[in-house]
Amino acid sequence: xxxxxxxxxxxxxxxxxxxxxxxxxxxxxxxxxxxxxxxxxxxxxxxxxxxxxxxxxxxxxxxxxxxxxxxxxxxxxxxxxxxxxxxxxxxxxxxxxxxxxxxxxxxxxxxxxxxxxx
Length: 118
Prior knowledge:
The protein is mainly beta.
């Protein structure tokens, strides 16, 4: 059974930091591009950051560039999202996504809530 389990969410004050983790029980994890997405109440799910299979290429939404960093450790089947200088508008449920064009497979995690508030 494939599972993506996010953790690390919570309540943080503006300007603070959080580190999200996504642990994947996927055979062949290194074959998957990984991504973080988020969905705020009343809004569509949006891309936050992506990272390629080997970690050599990353991509960020303009709204998080310079504040968030995506990384992965293939030996641990885990992808991370370091979030710094958090703002109220970063409040959302954050989801982990795994996709492999080679294997024609896409998986989503259940999400973790991030709330930025004073």
